[in-house]
Amino acid sequence: MAGLNKIIIIGNLGTDPEMRYTPDGTPMTTFSLATSRVYKTKDGERKQDTEWFRVVTWNQLAEQCNQFLVKGRLAYVEGRLRSRTWEGPDKTPRFSNEIIAARVLFLDKAPVPQGQETEPDTTPAEPEDLPF
Fold this sequence. Notes:
The protein contains one helix and six strands. By secondary structure, it is mostly beta strands. It has a single domain, classed as CATH 2.40.50.140. Strands 1-3-4-6-5 form a five-stranded mixed β-barrel. The longest helix is centred in the middle third of the chain and has 10 residues, at 59-68. The model has no long low-confidence stretch (mean pLDDT 87).
């Protein structure tokens, strides 16, 4: 029987995406994504827990994420969970969970770079400009 390794999260980017290339030229972009949940304690106090995820994207998806995502932007990420272990420079074992994304959706509007805001065109339309 086949297994299933699937994770879906919605959250805000905690860092700007970082794009690199493998030695064979394959693009890879990584970023962190934060999800939060709000709950009340038994005493009625409101608490918030935030969980951080490292997301890895490859190929065309990596290029799109690098181009359109920025810190703070809301995103939907769907992929598989991968665990990695390695030895740090101080010889201590290190462990990391990361999401290998198969799909990333940008859920909010892209921010307009500062200084590039435009005013709406309020010029009235002339009758000859109307399509009917």
